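So, could you explain this one?
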Amino acid sequence: MDPPQGDARDAILDAAEGLLGRFGYSKTTVEEIAREAGIGKGTIYLHFDSKKEVALATVDRLVRRVVGRLEEIAGAERPAVERLREMLVARVVLRLRGVRHYAGRIDELLRAIRPELLARRARHFEREARVLRTVLDEGVERGELRVDDAAAVAAAMVAATNSLLPYDLSVEQLHRQKPIERQAERIADLLLRGIEA
């Protein structure tokens, strides 16, 4: 018996992540994803049009987790600078952790889904910028930050840390995540120094 709808989708994505990490995009089939998830192949097609859509959905799910964590940090009762720093580092670190099991297979996956991923990335980054903007606006309101255009600053913060995301890193860099985390911290410190009141 197939799991309930929400559970089936998560089972599909869990199975896909594991298989894509172990075998890569080209060697992973819809049949293998179904077998790994413990469901029928037809159930996958109830949720996704293709293997590519499954792979893209794994990225979307990771981004939802990132945005959820950013919202959690944004809602904390701490100074805006502290929250923004943690948010900027978290958006990098959570993605790195989310793809660590892909090992040397990430380049192939990203090549396979690149055009569709680029379109989605813009939406993903806008969502993250909106969460950053709420903290920037709050920081200005409290007199903690000097920001003329919170939307532009939030977009710049996202752009400044994007170079540290898995999409832009080599496989070797993905295996050495601690230096990337330290780099994210340095970038966050530089950005925040410029807007602190």
Remarks:
- The mean pLDDT is 90.
- The chain has two domains: 1-48, 51-193.
- The chain has nine helices and no strands.
- The two ends are 59 Å apart (CA to CA).
